[in-house]
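<instruction>
Derive C-alpha cells from the sequence
<data>
Labelled lines for chain and fold
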Amino acid sequence: MPARNVIKQYGEREYYHVYNRGVNKQNIFLEADDYWYFLSLMKRHLSPEISTDKYGRKVPDYSDKIELSAFCLMPNHYHMLVYLHEPDGLALMMRSVMTAYVMYFNKKYKRVGGLFQGVFLASLITSDYYLWHVSRYIHLNPIDIGEDFTSYPYSSIDYYKGDKQAKWLHEERLVETSKERDDYIRFVADYKEMRADLNHLKKILAST
C-alpha cells in the first residue's frame, strides 16, 4: 500500500504542505552553502526572469504553474507551502530541484545513491484555518534544534517580517500589509511556548 500523502492527484488552485527528509534520517544539508544552493535552485525555477545553467541552456520556469509561499530547511528535512496554478506544477518543480540538488550533494561529498527518503510527500490544505497553522508549524521548526525561529536564516520568516523580498516567494498570499506581518509574527510566537511544553511532555512520557 502506498505511504500516506505520496501518490495523489494534485488539484489546481490548491495549497499543499510539501515535505521530505534524508534517507535513514541522515542530514541533507551539511554546510551553509548546501542550504543556499538548494534555495538557489528554487529561485531559478520559480523566478519569472529567464535563467540559464552553466552550459547556457535555458532553465525551466515553473512560476506560472506553482508558487512557493513558505519554506524551512532543516538539517535532515525540509518543509514547503506551495500554491498550485496547474496540477503538474509541483511534480515538475520538485523533479528539477531535487535531481539537481542530489547531483550537487553527491558530487560534493563523494557519495552515490539516493539522498531523500523516497518521493516527496504532499498534504492538501483544505481550509484557511489549516493554511495558517501549517505555515506556523513550518516557521517554528527551528526551535526543535535550539534556534530562534525569528532569525533562522534558512526559512521564509524574514520575508514574512518584511525584512526581505523576492519575486520567487509569495508570502503575500498570507500577509500583505505591515499590520498583517506584525500580526503574523505574534501569531507564530504565541504558539512557541505551547509547542515547547508539548515537546517536553513527549520526552517525559517517552522516558517513563
In short: The chain has a mean pLDDT of 89. The radius of gyration is 17 Å. The longest helix spans residues 178-207.
